[in-house]
Amino acid sequence: MTEHNIPFNKPYVTDDAAAYLQEAVNAGKISGNGMFTKKCHSILERITDCRKALLTTSCTDALEMSAILLNITPGDEVIMPSFTFVSTANAFLLRGAKIVFVDSRNDHPGMDEKAVESLITKKTKAIVAVHYAGVACDMGTLSRLADTYGLYLVEDAAQAIDSYYVEDGGDKRALGSIGNFGTLSFHETKNIQCGEGGALLVNRPEFEKRSEIIWEKGTNRAAFWRGEIDKYGWVDIGSSFLPSELVAAYLYAQLERVQEIQKRRVGVWNHYHQAFETLEGRGILKRPSIPAYATNNGHMYYLVCDSGEERSKLIEHLKKKGVHSVFHYQSLHGSKFFTPHHDGRKLSLSDMYSDCLLRLPLHLHLESQDTDRVVRAVEEYYL
Ligand SMILES: *Cc1c(COP(=O)(O)O)cnc(C)c1O
Q1: 34 with 245: CB under 8 angstroms?
Q2: What is the pLDDT along the chain (383 residues), one digit of tens a residue?
Q3: Ligand 1, pocket residues at CB < 6 Å
Q4: d(Cα 309, Cα 288) in Å, to the nearest integer?
Q5: Structural contact between residues 291 and 135, judged by C-beta atoms closer than 8 angstroms
Q6: Model's pTM, two decimal places?
Q7: Atom 5 (ligand 1) nearest CA
Q8: Rounded to an integer, what distance in angstroms lies between the CA atom of residue 222 and that of residue 279?
Q9: Rounded CA separation 256/78 (Å)
């Protein structure tokens, strides 16, 4: 019997998606900020406990909105990890910021919080925390730094829906709801998806009003729709950041199922994690580690190989076995675009994860025999 190929990702389509799309079509108004957008906002506000959620057409948009809202201007410095997606940096570069990259942690690809303080200068305006693989950065440390130095804190929580930072006292705070702003992604590779989509989470009252204006192309149209003013006009800069009701309708069908989706993803993650205990125990490769102050949202299962060469061979081996595995970010400080702008500091852990980190298939179409097959294929390579 030939076995089917196991794709790295296969988006999950909820049963209600088609019916909600039809409902949006029937409503006769599919431009943004309609009924489904409002339903998504309230569900996101409930899940994350943020003050205000605004759907956007991507997490990239939400990051760009946060850079506008923070009045980033040329010369401002923004500290963020090098091991992240280009949008984290582009959003602030577009406003003229100088990006200062920080290395990854030894035990985790996320940013080394302890390395941040020495990078702060008089020009530093913001820190962007990226919750890699949905695992919280040490928000206690970052929040203290932001308070001490008067900096803004933005959370790129693209991968981090339904994941939490656990405070010293044991209270859990949703990722994206802690900094001045949080940004979520609903790209089809994320836990909750609508093809392309995102959200800005606004966590401080002083940004609520302006966030809506920037979202609506620099106009006060949202307030007009609510009947708070009798005509609307151009009051600020902005852009078209709202998705249509079709996108919101599809997304709402996913958000309604967030608990079920998360439970199943975490199930696959745990299956991998137990299965790879032996290989890690023998010192052959490293499994993800989740700090005590973080929770696991089952966004990503990755392994860390000993070298880039070993990773390439393993990817090839898995491919022959019908298993599609992929590597991830390449350090932004060493990219073609950024190298001339980098200050020359070595960020060797970010480079190590660029070379050695391997992501395994994780989606809701995986049956337990598929996960077993992936595990066996990895074991075959090593044992
Ligand atoms: C996916 C991702 C983004 C970009 O999300 P889009 O919705 O595709 O714009 C940004 N940052 C991180 C960390 C991501 O994983």
Answers
A1: yes
A2: 467 999 999 999 999 999 999 999 999 999 999 999 999 999 999 999 999 999 999 999 999 999 999 999 999 999 999 999 999 999 999 999 999 999 999 999 999 999 999 999 999 999 999 999 999 999 999 999 999 999 999 999 999 999 999 999 999 999 999 999 999 999 999 999 999 999 999 999 999 999 999 999 999 998 998 899 999 999 999 999 999 999 999 999 999 999 999 999 999 999 999 999 999 999 999 999 999 999 999 999 999 999 999 999 999 999 999 999 999 999 999 999 999 999 999 999 999 999 999 999 999 999 999 999 999 999 999 98
A3: 58-60, 84-85, 87-88, 130, 156, 158-159, 185, 187, 198
A4: 20
A5: yes
A6: 0.97
A7: 59
A8: 55
A9: 35
Report residue 149 as tokens: 């130095």
Residue with CA nearest ligand 1 atom 2: 158
260: nearest Cα among 191, 177, 360, 194: 191
Q: Are 213 and 220 in contact (CB under 8 A)?
A: yes
Query: What are the backbone dihedrals phi and psi of residue 230, each rounded to the nearest 5 degrees, phi first?
Result: -95, -10
CA–CA gap between residue 232 and residue 175 (Å, rounded): 34
Residue with tokens 């800005």: 200
Torsion of CA 86, 88, 89, 92, to 10 degrees: 140
Tokens representing 63 are 């990051």
Tokens of 120: 């702060």
